[in-house]
Amino acid sequence: MSAPFGRRLADAVAARGPLCVGIDPHPPLLAAWGLTDDPDGLARFTDAVVDALAGSVAVLKPQLAFYERHGSRGLAVLEDAVARARAAGALVLLDAKRGDIGSTMDAYGDYLRPEHPLSVDAMTVSPYLGPGSLQPAVDTARQQGGGLFVLARTSNPDAGTLQHALVGGRSVAQVVVDTVRGWNTPGWVIGDPLPAVRDVAGRLGPATGSFGVVVGATLREMDLDLDGLSGPILAPGLGAQGGSVADLRRLFGSDRAVVPTVSRDVLAAGPDPAALRVAADRWTAELAG
To answer: Per the UniProt record, which residue ranges are transmembrane (predicted)?
Structure first.
């Protein structure tokens, strides 16, 4: 078993900064790069992004749907890209948003197994069949050193219609956060005082567990209790979606393990590899400022 994802993420962020770059080869972006919307164009796009960024950014986040739409040849492109990105030192977070029950969820969790053809470091999952539905993937993540990011408080305009619904006095989004908090602190019971946790160096503080939540960087206000999460927060929405580094600090403060995600603002700089690196480096520098 490899080192737990939370530890590998902390090491990658310490070495490279916290930036996560999404790889989203949707048809308009392929066209903007002068590429065809087929497996060949997909491969050229993906190779350019991986070659330019895998050696410098902490996390690359390919969106699975844009590869699945090209069938088996698209998935072959992604398999090759994931292997090359990880070999270059980037962690790969598969943006799959999978959520199901029983053996089906167990099969989705196989993406975290090293023998899987599309083996990744972590993946995004949806909890809306109930928190217990994700247990097979949680078990696999623990066994294999993988990570999960669970959709909690997303920034799409109508997210609140479900995520603000109340369950026993807590919002659905808060139930998700509390569930993930429990995965990172085994034995903790919701309602009990939060235990003191230690980071990988043994210091008291916000330890980085392998289970995180997705909370949008474009929220008007933070309406969740994230204290004691002990895991990373994936914060999409920077750049083209309107989120800024100032928003990150306003929403999350400075003492949480936040992984900010940028896609269009970096990818729009392509296809020139040097321009892609400059765009990513600009965000890395701003996040460090």
So the answer is: none
Pick the catalytic residue from 7, 16, 97, 116.
Answer: 97
Asked about 97 being catalytic, the answer comes back as: yes
Give residue 55's domain range.
5-288
Longest distance between any two alpha carbons in the chain, whole Å: 56
Phi then psi for residue 212, to 5 deg, are: -125, 180
β-sheet bridge partners, residue 125: 98, 150
What does pTM read for this prediction? 0.93
What CATH number has the domain bearing residue 13? 3.20.20.70
Mean pLDDT across 197-218: 69
Token readout for 245 is: 């580094």
Region of 168 (left: φ > 0; alpha: ψ -120 to 50; beta: rest) is left
Mean pLDDT in the chain? 91
Cβ 165 vs Cβ 171: under 8 Å: yes
